C-alpha cells in the first residue's frame, strides 16, 4: 500500500462512518488502461502520487459537493484531466515546453481538481501541488503543497484527529456531508454544522 493509497483508505473509512453522503459522491477507481492512454495523449508521465490517487477515486461521481477535501476543489476524473489540460495548455496554438513558470499555464502542469475555472495543478517536473487561477495563472508559493501525497496525508490526519488544514476544520451537517470550515465561519451555511472532536473522529 502506497502513502497515497493509505491516506485515501483512512479518508474513505472516516467518510463512510461520519459523512456517508459525501463518501457516496466519490467515484470508483479509474481504469489503468485509461490512465495510460491519457498519459500517451498528453505526452506526460503522471506522478505516481496522482496515479495512486486515481486508482482510488476517478474524480467525483457527483459534483454537487465541493467540500470533500479542505481546499474546496472537486477532484477531476482522468477524462476531465485531459479535457482541462487541453483547455488550459495551449499557448498560441501549441504547447510551449520552454515557457516560464510565471506564464498563464505551463504544459507540464496537470490539473487534478477544478471549480469555476480555477484548478489545483501538479507540476510533473517536481510533483509540487499548486493552484492555477483563470485570471492570474499558476501559483506554487507559500500555502501550497510539496506534493499530492502531503495534501492527502494532512487531510486524513485532520479528519481522524479533529484538527485543521490551513485553518479549516472538518464539520458534518445534518445530511451526512462533510464541510471544511474555519471556526469563525460556521454560521450562515443554512445548515447545522457539527465539528467532531478528536475522541469521536478517531
Automatic annotation (TrEMBL):
| Any Pfam family the entry gives | SMI1_KNR4
Q: Highest taxon of the source?
A: Bacteria
Cite the Knr4/Smi1-like domain residue spans from the record. Answer: 29-154
What is the official name of this protein in its record? Answer: Knr4/Smi1-like domain-containing protein
Amino acid at each position: 500500500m502506497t502513502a497515497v493509497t493509505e491516506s485515501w483508505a483512512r479518508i474513505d473509512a472516516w467518510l463512510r462512518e461520519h459523512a456517508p453522503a459525501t463518501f457516496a459522491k466519490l467515484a470508483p477507481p479509474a481504469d489503468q488502461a485509461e490512465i495510460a492512454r491519457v498519459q500517451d495523449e498528453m505526452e506526460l508521465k503522471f506522478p505516481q502520487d496522482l496515479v495512486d490517487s486515481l486508482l482510488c477515486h476517478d474524480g467525483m461521481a457527483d459534483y454537487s459537493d465541493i467540500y470533500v477535501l479542505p481546499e474546496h476543489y472537486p477532484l477531476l476524473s482522468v477524462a476531465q484531466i485531459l479535457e482541462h489540460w487541453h483547455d488550459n495548455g495551449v499557448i498560441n496554438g501549441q504547447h510551449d515546453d520552454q515557457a516560464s513558470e510565471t506564464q498563464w499555464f505551463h504544459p507540464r502542469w496537470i490539473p487534478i481538481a477544478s471549480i469555476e475555472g480555477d484548478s489545483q495543478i501538479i507540476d510533473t517536473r517536481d510533483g509540487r501541488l499548486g493552484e492555477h487561477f483563470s485570471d492570474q495563472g499558476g501559483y506554487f508559493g507559500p500555502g501550497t503543497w510539496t506534493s499530492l501525497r502531503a495534501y492527502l496525508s494532512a487531510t486524513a490526519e485532520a479528519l481522524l484527529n479533529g484538527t485543521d488544514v490551513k485553518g479549516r476544520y472538518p464539520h458534518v451537517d445534518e445530511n451526512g456531508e462533510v464541510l471544511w470550515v474555519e471556526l469563525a465561519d460556521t454560521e450562515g451555511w443554512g445548515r447545522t454544522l457539527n465539528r467532531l472532536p478528536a475522541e469521536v473522529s478517531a
